[in-house]
Design a protein that fits this description.
By secondary structure, this protein is mainly beta. It has a single domain (5-156), classed as Metallo-dependent phosphatases (Purple Acid Phosphatase, chain A, domain 2), CATH 3.60.21.10. The protein has three helices and eleven strands. A six-stranded mixed β-sheet has the order 4-3-2-1-10-11, with helices on one face. A five-stranded mixed β-sheet has the order 5-6-7-9-8, covered by helices on one side. α3 links the parallel β6 (78-82) and β7 (104-106). The longest helix has 8 residues, at 40-47.
């Protein structure tokens, strides 16, 4: 039996990648960025850690070929959807789970960390990893897939 698959979840870097992300994401098999990347240098740096895919956020420049509107991937038998969340207005766990058909739904935009089960679905907002705003601490998340089941953990980044 294969071991667990670890995936780094990050959002709202807004042009800043904290050095602590390298430590936290050590050993992940991939990184999924939920938008508001705000610079190719962020994606270049994340690619040094693991293969990285990212979606557009409302602050990203239109037409960036390295960003997509949404990501839908399957890893270890788990369907994962990633979008920024701004397309839903004021996203929250219930609204995101209702909008997307996936086992795990990842979004950003609000900068507010969240891990919540909505029925059988896991909804994750890794929080904002970039500049500190709204008195929220910078954070990311690790998604762990084991035996076709997903769990997530929020990790506060060192400022």
């Amino acid at each position: 039996m294969a071991g667990p698959i670890r995936i780094g979840l990050i959002s709202d870097t807004h042009g800043q990648l904290r050095a602590d992300v390298h430590r936290v994401f050590t050993g992940v098999s991939m990184i999924l960025h939920a938008g508001d990347v705000c610079g190719d240098e962020i994606l270049d740096e994340l690619q040094l850690i693991a293969p990285t895919w990212a979606v557009y956020g409302n602050c990203d420049l239109p037409g960036d070929p390295r960003l997509t509107e949404r990501l839908d991937v399957e890893v270890g038998g788990v369907r994962i959807h990633v979008s920024h969340g701004h397309e839903l207005g004021r996203p929250g766990a219930a609204k995101v789970a209702a909008a997307y058909d996936a086992d795990v739904c990842v979004y950003g935009h609000t900068h507010r960390q969240l891990i919540e089960r909505v029925g059988e679905r896991l909804v994750v907002n890794p929080g904002a990893a970039g500049p500190r705003r709204f008195d929220l601490v910078p954070s990311v998340a690790i998604l762990t897939i084991r035996d076709g089941r997903a769990e997530a953990e929020l990790i506060t980044l060192v400022e």
